[in-house]
Amino acid sequence: MVTGKGAMTAGEGRGGRPTLEMVAARAGVGRGTVSRVVNGSPHVSAQARAAVEAAIAELGYVPNRAARALAADRTDAVALVIPESETRLGAEPYFLDIVRGVSTELADTDMQLLLTLIRTPRERQRLGQHLAARRVDGVLLVSVHENDPLPSLLERLRVPTVLNGRRSEREWMSYVDADNVGGARSAAEHLLGLGRRTVATITGPLDMYVARCRLDGYTQAMNSAGLGGDTSLVAHGDFTEEGGRAAMRALLERHPGLDAVFAASDVMASGALHVLRQSGRRVPEDVALIGFDDSAVARHADPPLTSVRQPTEEMGRTMARVLLEEIESRNGIRRHVVLSTDLVVRESA
Amino acid sequence: MVTGKGAMTAGEGRGGRPTLEMVAARAGVGRGTVSRVVNGSPHVSAQARAAVEAAIAELGYVPNRAARALAADRTDAVALVIPESETRLGAEPYFLDIVRGVSTELADTDMQLLLTLIRTPRERQRLGQHLAARRVDGVLLVSVHENDPLPSLLERLRVPTVLNGRRSEREWMSYVDADNVGGARSAAEHLLGLGRRTVATITGPLDMYVARCRLDGYTQAMNSAGLGGDTSLVAHGDFTEEGGRAAMRALLERHPGLDAVFAASDVMASGALHVLRQSGRRVPEDVALIGFDDSAVARHADPPLTSVRQPTEEMGRTMARVLLEEIESRNGIRRHVVLSTDLVVRESA
DNA sequence: TGCCAATCTGGGAGCGCTCCCACGGGAGCG
DNA sequence: CGCTCCCGTGGGAGCGCTCCCAGATTGGCA
C-alpha cells in the first residue's frame, strides 16, 4: 500500500500537479472562492483573496486547461490558418511576421496559438471538422481567395473569424488589411516625382483582390498626372520571379523607351531587374524600379530595391486584437481595419 | 417550450454537438463500446462496430478534445518552441520549412501544433509554467543555445523533447540535426576541386555548435588537401550580413590574392559578395564563393550563390516523427538523427 | 452434458474545473 | 429594534470523455 486515501481526501492529482481543490483546502476556503480568485472575479474579500493567492504560490498551482475547457465550453486557443500555396513565392517573411505579431498580442492573454498549414484538400476538410468540433475559440485566416469556402463555413458555424486581407471590395467579415491602393499610388507618384513619364506596371494575378488594389493605386496616380489611359503600360504577372521576367520583356517590347516600372511584388521586381540588366539598361539611371512588400529580396537586390512596406507584424497584432474582441463580446460585430503602408526608398528609384 | 427533456435524456450537448452518449443511444450500444470503436480498440464485434460507425456518420460526431484530455490525462498537442532572436538573420525560410515539415507529419495524427515564439525572458518563464502544467504531450525545440535552461527543465519535468540541432558534441537528448561538418567539407572540397588554393572561410559565432561544425568541415578538407594550418584564412562572423562584410574585408587585407571563400551562411556570403565586388574582384572568376543554407538570398544573389543545402523540411518531419515515437513509448529512449546535406552548385563557384 | 475460459459488453466512477444555487451574517432601512 | 437586502461564500451538479470492473454470452473441452 503506497498512500492511504482517508487522510488526504483531495488526492494528489495525476502527475502530482496541484488542483483547485488542493488550493482550496490549503487556503481554508471553498472551491468556488479559489475559482473566483483565479478568474479575477471582484466578489471576493481581500482576506480570502490573499489566503488563496498565498496557497497558489506555495503549491505552484496552474489551472488545468482541459478541465476548464470542458466545464466552461471554451478552449482558450485560436487557430492561425495558412494555406500552404501562399507560403511559397518568397513570401515567407510575411508569414513569419504575421505569426510574430499574433504571438506577441496573444502573449499577454493566456490564449494558445494553434498553427494550421493547409496543403491538401484532405487537410482542408480535416480543418472543417476541427472547427465544427469547436476546438478553438476563434480563427485567423491568412490570404483567403475569393472563392474559398472556409470563411462561409466559419460564418455558418458562428466561429469568430478575422481575415488577413479582403476577398473583395465589400468584404463583410472582420479583416485587417494593408492599404494596397495607397501604397501603390505612392510608389507611382514617387516615380512620377522623379520626372519619369513612361511609367509601366507589372501586376499580380487580377483574380486576387490585393493585385487589383495595387493596380488601382497605380492607375490613380497616372490619372492624376494626366498620363492615364494607356493600357499597354500594364503587364500581368503572377507574383513569381518568372512572371516578372516575362512581363518585363513584354513591356520592353511595347515600350523600349520606358523609364520607370512599378512591380506589385518584390519578387516580380527582382525578375524585372534581371531582364532590364540583360537588355543593357541601368537601374535606376535608365529605368527606375519599385517593388512591393519590402522583403529580404528587395534589400539584397543589386541595386537594393525601393519598395512599399506594409506593417506586417502590426497586422498580425491587430488581427489578434480584433479576434480577441470578437470572442469576448459575443455580439458578432465586424471590424474592418486598414493599415497604412509606406515607401522605403533605396537605390532603384 | 422548445424541446421537452423527458424523451431525450441524453440532452443535446452544448452548441448542439453530438456526444459519445448520443452516439451510443443511437447505435443501441453502451458508451464503452462507442469509445472503443472511436479509439480503434480491437475488442469490438463487427456488428457493434458497424452500428457505431453508422451512428457516428449520421450524427457527425467528433470527439470532444477537452473531455478526452481531462479523462485520459493527455492533450494530443505538441509545442514547437522558437526563440525569437533566431527568426531574424534572414533565417526565416528555415523556420517556415521546419514548421511545414512538422505540420506535414502531424497532419496524419490528430495531434495539434502549438506555436510558441519566445521573445522576452518573461515569455520564457511563462512557457515554463505551461510546460509544468503539462499542456502539451511533447516539445520541439528549435536552435537551442548551449546554456539554454529549457532543455534541462524539460528533462526534469519528463516532457518528451526533441531538439533541432545539438548543443554540443555529446548531446544526450533526442535531436535531429543536419550534417554541418559534411556539408562544409564538401563545400571546401568543391572549391579545392576547382583548382583554388587560397581558400578562406568566414565562420559563424563559435559559441554556437553549428558554427564550430562548419568550421570543422572546412578544416578537414583543407587538411586533407595538405593546405591546412593557416589560421589567417579563418575570419569570424556572426551570421549577419554586416559580419560577413567585415570578415571579408579582414580576409582581403590579410590575403589580397585569395581565390575562394566558404561562408558559413548565405547571408554572410551575400555580405562578402558585396565587399568582393567593391574591391573590384569578379565572382567567380577571381574569387569563388560558397554559402550555406541554400536560402532565397543565395538564389537571388547576383551571381546566384553556390550553397550547401540542408533538408530543412525533412528535418521538421523527422523531428515530429521522433517526438511522436518518444511520446508513444514512454521508455525515455533517446534518438539522434543526422541528415545529410548537399551542395547546390550555381554560378558563384 | 457440464464447466471454465475467452470474448464482448454496459455502465459506474472519476478527471478538474465552472456555473449557479442557497445560506449566513452585516449594513441599512422604516 | 426588527426587517429586508446584498455581499461573500461553500459546495452540488455536471461538462464529455476514459478507465476499468464486473456481467452476459459464447465457444471449447473433458
From TrEMBL, chains A, B:
Sample GO molecular function, one term: DNA-binding transcription factor activity
Keyword Nucleotide-binding included in the entry's annotation: no
Entry keyword set: DNA-binding, Transcription, Transcription regulation
InterPro entries assigned: HTH_LacI, LacI/GalR-like_sensor, Lambda_DNA-bd_dom_sf, Peripla_BP_I
Source superkingdom: Bacteria
Domain HTH lacI-type as annotated: residue spans: 18-72
Name of this chain's protein: LacI family transcriptional regulator
Organism expressing this protein natively: Streptomyces griseofuscus
Classification of source organism: Bacteria, Bacillati, Actinomycetota, Actinomycetes, Kitasatosporales
